[in-house]
Each structure stands twice: as structure tokens, then as C-alpha cells.
Write a structure and sequence with these properties.
InterPro entries: Homeodomain-like_sf, HTH-type_TetR-like_transc_reg, Tet_transcr_reg_TetR-rel_C_sf. This protein is mainly alpha-helical. It folds into two domains: 73 residues, Arc Repressor Mutant, subunit A; 119 residues, Tetracycline Repressor, domain 2, CATH 1.10.357. The chain has eleven helices and no strands. The protein is globular.
């Protein structure tokens, strides 16, 4: 979101970099867990002060990355409508592609940390709306959102740590199909229609 990211820049001479350039430089750095702000400024070929107009620390860097990825995943003007399952599948595949292009990002998300309130709320609202369109109550739509996101981010984080997976890790298409067939959540004992 350009306006939120733009609000971070301090007055003065405009930075020679953009939000997209920062995310691209971070994605080519190897692993976000080990990326330093000094390294990122070097990859962008700018001074620390130019980078600090956008992000002053790693938390702000992850917020900026989150904003950018949510902008890429939630397409402007796209409505969920009644086709909620294909829409969620598309969102999950976009998250798969975007998150795994930034090694360390899914692992970071899987750890307890403060999320970017704006981008997390946008994604949550869109996904909860999809589950509401599936015909469940607001409480079950919220529960379904947490199940969907926790499962998805955990699977993606496991892909970043291949030594933990072993040879039996499920393919993403199998994992996603099984996850979506189990959603939206239902009260225990209630049969699926």
C-alpha cells in the first residue's frame, strides 16, 4: 500500500528506492532471518539513511514486506462472491509463490510476533468474508480463518526447513485440497452438506 509505506518516509530529498525495490532486494538476499539492514542497503546500492526513510529496523522491514505481499495477493476490485473455494485456492497459491520467493518470510510469520495491523486486517477480512459466503456464522468464519492461515503458514514454513521434512512431506496441491475440503469449520458432530 503506497500511502502507508509513503507515510514512513521522512521529509527531505526523496529516496532513490521504492517499496518494490526493497522487497526485491530482500528476496535476492538469501534468507531474511540473517539479512541485516546494512546488507539490504548495500544490495540496494543506497546509504543507510536512504533505506531508513522507508524502514528503520527489521520489524518495519517485515511490515513493509507484508504490505507488499498482501497487495500482490489481494487483487484490486476482486470480489469473493459465491465462488469462495476457488478464490481461497487462488489466494493460497499466491501466498505459496510470494512467501517462498522470500526465504525466511514464512518462518518469521510462523513465530509469535506483532503483525502489521493494516495488512493483516485486510487479509483477515477478505478470508473471513470468503467463509461467510460459504454460509457459516461469523464465529465459524473467524475460526476457519485461523485454521486456514495457521495451516498454510505452517506448511510454507516447513518448506523453508527441508531438513525437518523428510521424504514424506505432502505436495502443496494435496495439502491445499485436503485443507479446503475440511473448511469452513463446522461444529463437532454436524455433518457436511
Amino acid at each position: 500500500m503506497a500511502s502507508a509505506a509513503g507515510a514512513r518516509r521522512s521529509p527531505g530529498r526523496p529516496a532513490r528506492i521504492s517499496r518494490e525495490q526493497i522487497v526485491e532486494a530482500a528476496s535476492s538476499a538469501g534468507n531474511l532471518d540473517t539479512l541485516t539492514m546494512r546488507e539490504l542497503a548495500g544490495r540496494l546500492n543506497v546509504s543507510h539513511s536512504a533505506l531508513y526513510r522507508w524502514v528503520t529496523n527489521r520489524d518495519e522491514l517485515f511490515d513493509l514486506i507484508g504490505e507488499t505481499l498482501v497487495d500482490r495477493i489481494l487483487r484490486p476490485g476482486e470480489a469473493v462472491g459465491s465462488a469462495w473455494r476457488p478464490w481461497l485456492a487462488r489466494v493460497a497459491w499466491d501466498m505459496h509463490d510470494q512467501f517462498l520467493a522470500l526465504p525466511g518470510y514464512a518462518t518469521h510469520l510462523s513465530r509469535p510476533h506483532p503483525h502489521n495491523a493494516h495488512s493483516a486486517a485486510r487479509l483477515r477480512t477478505a478470508i473471513v468474508t470468503a467463509f461467510l459466503n460459504a454460509g457459516v456464522s461469523e464465529d465459524l468464519a473467524e475460526q476457519s480463518y485461523y485454521i486456514f492461515m495457521t495451516s498454510l503458514v505452517s506448511w510454507l514454513a516447513s518448506q523453508e526447513n527441508p531438513l525437518r521434512l523428510g521424504p514424506s512431506a505432502p505436495r502443496f496441491d494435496l495439502f491445499l485440497d485436503t485443507l479446503l475440503r475440511g473448511l469452513p469449520a463446522r461444529e463437532p458432530g454436524i455433518a457436511r452438506p
